[in-house]
DNA sequence: GTGAGGATCGTCT
DNA sequence: GACGATCCTCACA
């Protein structure tokens, strides 16, 4: 007997209502999709970091709610895009119920669809390697044409949104857990999750 | 192949 | 006024 596949593989807000650590780990292997100008840009999520909120000094929400980080305090499953170092955008998805801050930073993807478009958006040749296209938080936003101005506050659990996350089943690989990268506070906390492909 | 340092600007103090 | 959840380039081994 085979179970019927769900009509839509899009992750719902139920998925994101849990704690960032749980959501981060569960997001590995899921597929980030951006419908852009009639084209699908997609990539499998292979690296994420969890940011806990008020109890996490490294989180943008640690100092309390501001106009910039309000998305983290809002309902789960909403894109939080922030601008960093004067030149990069980074994509997070909010977690926990409405009113509780927390989020998951998407750090790296393996490109699946629209690879040529991604390369063009990154200003790279069409045969660029995945690591060059979407191997970092700033890179993947550029490759997916995701910006703070256009995508911060978008609900990724809604079918009509241009961005969502799809579940295409379990992908082979092992999960590696390490300290987070590029931060100066709470650096010892093992909240970075990396999907290592099996060889 | 690896490591160090510069670029650049929104946000908060 | 200072800092930051990054990336790229260049120098050196």
What would you note in describing this structure?
This protein has 7 helices and 8 strands. Strands 1, 2, 3, 4, 5, 6, 7 and 8 form an 8-stranded antiparallel sheet that branches. Strand 4 and strand 5 form a beta hairpin. It is α+β, with helices and mostly antiparallel strands. It binds a DNA duplex (13 and 13 nucleotides) through residues 49, 51, 58-60, 63, 66-68, 82-88, 90, 92, 105, 107, 136-139, 148, 180-184.
Give the SSE map.
Elements: H1 13-16, H2 20-27, E1 31-36, E2 39-51, H3 70-73, E3 79-84, E4 88-94, E5 103-113, H4 115-122, H5 130-134, H6 137-143, H7 148-151, E6 163-166, E7 174-178, E8 192-196
Antiparallel strand pairs: 1-2, 1-6, 2-5, 2-8, 3-4, 4-5, 7-8
The chain binds a DNA duplex (13 and 13 nucleotides) through residues 49, 51, 58-60, 63, 66-68, 82-88, 90, 92, 105, 107, 136-139, 148, 180-184.
Task: Give a short synopsis of this structure.
With 199 residues, the chain is of the alpha+beta class. It contains 7 helices and 8 strands.
- Helix/strand-derived category reads alpha+beta
Helix and strand pattern: HHEEHEEEHHHHEEE
β content, as a range? 25-35%
For the termini, the CA-CA separation is: 31 Å
Radius of gyration: 16 Å
Q: What composes the largest sheet?
A: 8 strands, antiparallel
Helical proportion? 10-25%
């Amino acid at each position: 007997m085979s179970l019927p596949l769900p009509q839509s593989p899009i992750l719902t807000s139920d998925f994101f209502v849990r704690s960032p650590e749980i959501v981060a780990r569960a997001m590995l292997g899921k597929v980030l999709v951006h419908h852009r100008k009639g084209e699908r840009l997609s990539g499998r999520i292979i690296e994420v970091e969890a940011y806990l909120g008020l109890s996490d000094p490294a989180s943008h929400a640690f100092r309390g709610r501001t106009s910039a980080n309000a998305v983290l305090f809002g309902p789960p499953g909403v894109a939080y895009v922030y601008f960093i170092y004067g030149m990069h955008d980074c994509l997070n998805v909010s977690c926990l119920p409405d009113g509780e801050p927390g989020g998951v930073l998407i750090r790296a993807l393996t490109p699946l669809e629209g690879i040529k478009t991604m390369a063009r958006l990154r200003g790279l040749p069409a045969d660029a390697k995945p690591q060059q296209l979407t191997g970092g938080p700033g890179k993947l936003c550029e490759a997916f044409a995701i910006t703070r101005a256009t995508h911060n506050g978008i609900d990724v659990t809604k079918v009509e949104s241009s961005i969502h996350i799809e579940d295409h089943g379990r992908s082979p690989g092992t999960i590696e857990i390490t300290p987070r990268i590029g931060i100066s506070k709470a650096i010892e906390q093992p909240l970075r999750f990396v999907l290592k492909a099996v060889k």
